[in-house]
Amino acid sequence: MKKKTKAIRDDLNHEAFSRLDLKKYSGKCIALVNGKVVVNEKDPTKAMERVVSLSQHSQVALICVPSSKTTMCL
């Protein structure tokens, strides 16, 4: 169990996500590559295509952030 916890702590995307202000990205898909936001698109398909072209050997996280209206309904 300790190995998994250490792996998560070492993950750059996890650290960046925990510090990220998601209000700026409401209703969009963002991609984190090695801890940096490199894609900011409304269409998840376009976001994924851009991520694939940008980073072939990097840590990638694709996150779809709900809009503020959707969040209010939850």
Order of the strands making up the biggest sheet:
2-1-3
Structural class: alpha+beta
Cα(first) to Cα(last) distance is 32 Å
| Proportion of residues in helical segments | 40-55%
| Rg (CA only) | 13 Å
SSE pattern, N- to C-terminal: HHEEHEH
- Low-confidence stretches are none
Count every beta strand, where a strand is a DSSP E run of 2 or more residues: 3
Q: How many domains in all?
A: 1
The helix tally amounts to: 4
| Most strands sheet | 3 strands, antiparallel
Q: Mean pLDDT across all residues, rounded?
A: 78
Morphology: flat
Portion in strands: 15-25%
Task: Please tell me about this protein's structure.
The protein is flat and about 35 Å long. The protein has 74 residues and is an alpha+beta fold. It has one domain. The protein is 46% helix and 22% strand. The chain has a three-stranded antiparallel sheet.
